[in-house]
Design a protein that fits this description.
With 331 residues, the protein is an alpha/beta fold. It has helices at 14-27, 44-51, 59-62, 76-86, 105-115, 174-178, 186-189, 197-208, 228-234, 251-277, 287-304, 309-315; strands at residues 3-9, 34-40, 66-70, 91-95, 99-100, 122-126, 129-131, 161-163, 170-173, 211-214, 220-222. The strands form 2 sheets. An 8-stranded mixed beta sheet has the order 3-2-1-4-9-6-10-8, with helices on both faces. It has a 3-stranded mixed beta sheet with strand order 5-11-7.
């Protein structure tokens, strides 16, 4: 199989149906050689409704175009990893459960990977992302780390371009994600519910000697988060993983910071995380626990990385020319 689209779902219903139908329409540009794999963390009654075909036709299950699996604990990262383990595609694309797929987005992502299949440096390739209530000119491909390591949104690109990091939608080789990248590492090992995952797997490829690329194509459209004024009317909750799991919202950012850049990176970003995500508790009280949970993966990364996080910031490898494949590790 050519492509597997992986989706983790927690309590999305009508939004999930939109995402599934949008994917199925775009599979036509690939000749149908694709599947959707959903790992569901929903409340039992919602999972039951999805399974019975109340959200979208369960004929898709019988046709093996959509496969649905249950995970009885709430963790975005383990759900995505389980979906990847269950997938059959040469490539995987990651989507949230509340998205509209851009026109020919899957085909353009696959074409980019196929054109670069002999290049071992390619890690992730990214379609731009946009939001349903915004104009398409606001679609973005990357994060700008010039003044902020967690990065405000950067820009979209009209040509294939190396980029810093970004969240989904991304495409990569299935085996590469689980083996060379080490997947979500500490975030999945300790069942962190939400927070830090995009930065975690977005920066890690660069430290390990791989590259992130922007692919010019139609953006994937997020159905939310809506402006506060609209939320009062719509009532749709967004980021449904945020209030689940063992630790407070965005705790994963502290772990990701420690794994990637040590205690120095936590200290540089702790106030920003607090401001951006509005912790109810004193965020510094959670730093020792974040360090403890991140130690194993940090040791794994230090054994394999070709540059430190600080060297990544200083060298800006996304701005450097490509190197031959035999020089992998010398970006």
């Amino acid at each position: 199989m050519l492509l597997s689209v992986i989706i983790s779902n927690r309590n999305d219903t009508s939004m999930l149906a939109v995402t599934v139908r949008s994917c199925l329409e775009e599979f036509k540009a690939l000749g149908g050689d694709a599947e959707i794999v959903i790992v569901d963390n929903s409340d039992p009654e919602i999972y039951d409704a999805i399974q019975k075909g109340s959200c979208f036709s369960n004929m898709y299950f019988h046709e093996n175009r959509v496969r649905l699996y249950r995970q009885n604990f709430h963790c975005l990262f383990t759900a995505r990893e389980e979906a990847i383990r269950r997938s059959k595609g040469r490539y995987i694309v990651c989507l949230d459960s509340h998205m509209i797929v851009g026109h020919k987005m899957f085909r353009d992502l696959v074409d980019f990977m196929n054109a670069n299949k002999e290049n071992p440096l390619i890690g992730f390739a990214h379609a731009p992302i946009s939001w349903c209530h915004q104009h398409e000119s606001l679609a973005r491909h990357d994060r700008d780390v010039t003044n902020n390591e967690l990065g405000p949104w950067g820009k979209a690109y009209a040509e294939p371009t190396k980029i810093t990091w970004k969240g989904m939608p991304w495409i990569c080789r299935r085996r590469w994600f689980m083996n060379e990248l080490g997947a979500y590492g500490a975030l999945s090992e300790h069942k962190i519910s939400w927070g830090g995952g995009d930065m975690h797997i977005g920066v890690k490829p660069w430290l390990l000697g791989y590259q992130n690329w922007a692919v010019p194509t139609s953006p994937a459209i997020h159905l939310g988060p809506w402006p506060k004024e609209a939320q009062k009317v719509i009532g749709h909750k967004y980021r449904l993983y945020r209030e689940s799991g063992q630790y407070p919202t965005s705790f994963g950012f502290l772990i990701a910071c420690y794994v990637l850049g040590g205690e120095e990176m936590i200290e540089r970003n702790i106030d920003l995380v607090n401001k951006r995500f509005g912790w109810r508790e004193n965020i510094r009280n959670f730093v020792p626990r974040a360090i403890e949970l991140g130690q194993r993966e940090r040791a794994w990364l230090e054994e394999r990385q070709i540059m430190t996080f600080q060297e990544w910031l200083d060298l800006k490898p996304w701005e450097q020319p490509d190197v031959p494949a035999e020089d992998h590790g010398a970006i």
